[in-house]
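Record 1 of the preview.
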Amino acid sequence: MPRRLAPEIMDDPGQSEADFSAALHDLERLNRLTFAHAPLLRFLDRVLREERPARLSLLDVGAGGGDALRAVAAWGSRRGVALDLWGLDRSPWAERHALARGTPARWITSDLFDLDPARRFDLVTCSLFAHHLDDATLLRFLPWLRRHAMRRWLITDLHRHPIPWAAVWAGTRAMRMHPMVTHDGPVSVARGFTRADWVRLASEAGVQAEIRWVLPFRWSVSGPGGGALPP
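->
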């Protein structure tokens, strides 16, 4: 199944706030049903186990409605880790939706490449966002992640395969999800990745990456950060 870069409706800035928010609500429901945040929380547990930080700053890129950040906040509360959480999304509606849902994070409404190059966070994460980017942009994004993360960075995203494509196509329709989700869901899977894609992209970008298979039909790609800026 070749990677197909058909456009997603959610990426169209002309969408209304009401439609965007309704779609985010259904995506959050889909994320819960598919355990979308499990690899992110396992990544955090690994950081905690290996480095034992008392406090962490974390930037979530393509943060959407903030459900990943809310999952991270709950993790921090359970583990006794103080968190400084940030969300970055270029949609002006994302922050309003996330804060209305009680997301305990500060927000940056911006294109990711417009972020101040001097900004650093302990961890930079990216949950189900990378498939929105074409290969050329991903080759810029992978070094960007390393540059802005002091400790580690993480991408979790979809595995491109006919089985999850069919499951998402049928499931979003059976659950009567928003039309934006029923359209974008299967498109997202077709824009997803295989292991070979990630191996090639990491090599071409010149970044060290650990690539792990995650159920159901996901990839976890992580690597070391670039450290703090010199004084």
